[in-house]
Design a protein that fits this description.
With about 325 residues, this protein is mainly alpha-helical. The chain is about 75% helix and about 0% strand. It is built from 14 helices and no strands.
Length: about 325
């Protein structure tokens, strides 16, 4: 009986040695894991680029919504005023001139707001376009340079998160990547945090007003805590009438969702600010500016999670590790 020869060699070597088998297995494992590793790297890279693109895009949408609401409100008020004047049977010439002058002034105000809004929209659209163009510019010829720019973007973002704003700004300017990073977002957050450190809740409340829908969607009580803080400060100053007025206007809407905290803090009106009663003393110290700074929303603000999806820490660490390997290789 004849034995068919092996496909890749002579029939005289039919038995495979252990060394050959081990080598074959290693090659097979390497060939199977290499595509998986590349796919994993690509996935992490896309997560990173998605975050860089999401920030200006979210700002762009927010600017459009704000401009639309502002103009819609102003136009509705003007149309209502025109209708009232037109329906008036008895209106003097002087009153008509006064009404028209007022309408012209309001229309000029709308024009100014439209111009400002258009400028802001164009700025955000330009930033989105710059990042898309940068993403599209990556190819085999300039991959090393492109990865170097990406590493600098990561470093600028990290320094901004760690409050090294001047260093982040200098790196962005020296690398000419201002349109590819989001230092302005962190500077906006810095104003809020600095205000709380200076025992001022105004900037934080303004931020809450601008992001009201997002806070409501996430069921955040950051604004409620800010309002409690202002109320407590009025009670500590023994300005009880202002505290009552403030509570009616700003705290009562939160009563349905935060009844226990609302009742506890309202009880402080019945005691002196220097009371030693632990139960009521707790109400006067239940909020402080240090607590507000440490509040989760403050940290979400710093990490701009209201503008982007949560970034996994491994994405950043892995990306930096990969860039250093590429640059050193």
């Amino acid at each position: 009986m004849e034995i068919d020869p092996l496909p890749n060699g002579s029939g005289s070597n039919a038995a495979t040695s252990p060394e050959t088998a081990a080598t074959t297995t290693a090659i097979t494992v390497t060939s199977n894991t290499a595509p998986s590793s590349k796919l994993s790297h690509l996935t992490e890279s896309l997560k990173l680029e998605h975050q860089f693109l999401r920030v200006p895009f979210e700002h762009f949408k927010k600017t459009i919504r704000t401009n639309h609401r502002t103009v819609e409100k102003e136009v509705s008020a003007i149309i209502s005023s025109v209708t009232d004047v037109a329906d008036s049977d008895e209106i003097s010439k002087d009153d008509a001139i006064l009404s028209l002058t007022s309408l012209v002034s309001r229309l000029q105000g709308i024009k100014r707001k439209l111009e400002e809004g258009s400028h802001a929209e164009n700025l955000q659209a330009h930033r989105c376009r710059a990042r898309l163009d940068h993403l599209d510019s990556a190819d085999a010829e300039n991959l090393s340079e492109w990865n170097n720019v990406r590493l600098k973007r990561i470093l600028v973002d990290y320094m901004s998160r760690m409050s090294y704003y001047d260093s982040a700004m200098k790196l962005a300017e020296s690398s000419n990547i201002q349109e590819l990073v989001d230092i302005d977002v962190f500077q906006e957050a810095k104003k809020v945090i600095d205000g709380l450190r200076n025992q001022e809740v105004g900037p934080a409340l303004a931020w809450c007003a601008d992001n009201k829908s997002r806070l409501k969607k996430s069921k955040s009580k950051f604004e409620f805590q800010l309002r409690l803080q202002e109320f407590v400060e009025l009670v500590r100053a023994e300005n009880y009438m202002r505290a009552i007025s403030y509570a009616r206007r700003y705290l009562s809407p939160w009563g349905a969702t935060h009844l226990k905290e609302f009742q506890r803090v309202m009880a402080t009106l019945a005691v002196r600010s220097h009371t030693e009663c632990a139960k009521y003393k707790l109400g006067l110290v239940m909020t402080d500016f240090g607590f507000l700074i440490r509040f989760p929303v403050a940290f979400n603000l710093i990490s701009h999670r209201f503008w982007v999806v949560d970034a996994v820490a491994s994405v950043w660490i892995g990306a930096i590790h990969d860039e250093f390997q590429i640059l050193s290789g």
